[in-house]
Amino acid sequence: MKKLSLKHPVLFLQVFANIRDIPKDQRGNYKVKEILSMPESIISETGYFSEGVLFLQDDLRGSEEKLLSSGFIVLTDYLQTSFAGMEDILLFHDAKHPRNAGIFRMQMNGDHLSLSLHYSGNRYTIGDPARDDFRFGELHQGDSLRFTLNSKNDSHDQRKYCWFDYLFCGYEYVNEIVFDSKSKIRIPKRIPSKLNKKVELLRDIY
Q: Staple 151 to which of 30, 47, 127, 168, CB 3.0 to 4.6 Å?
């Protein structure tokens, strides 16, 4: 175990993501309610936050320098995804300026974190129908917000129907980072059931 004391509090955001793409010939085997269901808790492979301390697995110790110079950390637990290149941890210098995080853009404005869909930079990931870039929420400390979007993607051999389901947990501040073994990090992480806001961009897509 190794402790890393930070020179100043670092903004931290926990995200849970359930991303599905289902081939057209299998679409009838699933109900939307089943696709978008989230468990009460998961076992995180990356880390967890508790009382100002961010616990990360030892494999991430190579990122010490980046962590020390970060002002904004986003940790995403993927409940399910078949998309390649999805990152568990994103490190940014700060959150005062708009930051691209997956299909979203985030920026700290006063006491809230502004969340926007960044479709124009992710149209090939998201697929059709086209969406406008827009701000869909303001996340305050302790709040929870769920964002859901569906689409279709014809960029492969056959059409796939996609669901992007994200739960943003209210931001916190990290004062210390602890690196520990994977067995110590793998503890149940509860997924909030109480939401302050729910944004659903669900369409009938054929």
A: 127
